[in-house]
Amino acid sequence: MAERPLSNEERQAIARAEAVIAGLTGQYLAAAEADLARLKVAAASLAADPAGRTSHLDRLFQISHDMKGQGATFGYPLVTTIGNRLCRFIEKRRDTMDDAGVAVVLRHVEALDRVIGERMKEPATPEAEALIESLELAAGG
């Protein structure tokens, strides 16, 4: 089925939406840095409080899920890629998280810290690919 051409009105609506998103992109970094700070606190709690791991993992999941959702929208698909990997790892290991798993979670948080701190956007660069590969190796594949 062939797509119909967009009307002038539809093109203008899309342009307005893209302009709004572009205007919010600068604010995104401040929000991402705040999310990252919360993620680091939750990760430190995870490492320091083995008895409370499940609740700390739930918090880590929620923050990384939010970061994952916002990253690509605001021009940081690498945040989305790493946030997604962290979410999937937490889902897989939530009820069986051991010290080795905590170390993997911490590596993901460090990776997000690097990505945001260095303003790394694209996952298809050699540096980003090496970072993702290191996370895959840490997670066991």
Q: What is the count of β-strands?
A: 0
Proportion of beta-strand residues: under 5%
CATH fold category name: Four Helix Bundle (Hemerythrin (Met), subunit A)
Low-confidence residue ranges = none
Q: Largest sheet, if any?
A: none
Helicity range? over 70%
Q: What's the pLDDT, averaged over the residues?
A: 91
Alpha carbon gyration radius: 18 Å
Q: Total number of helical segments?
A: 5
CATH class: Mainly Alpha
Structural class: mainly alpha
Q: Specify the CATH architecture.
A: Up-down Bundle
- Mass-distribution shape: elongated
Overall tally of domains = 1
Alpha-carbon distance between the two ends: 40 Å
N-to-C order of helices and strands: HHHHH
Summarize the model shown.
The chain is mainly alpha-helical. The protein has five helices and no strands. 77% of the residues lie in helices and 0% in strands.
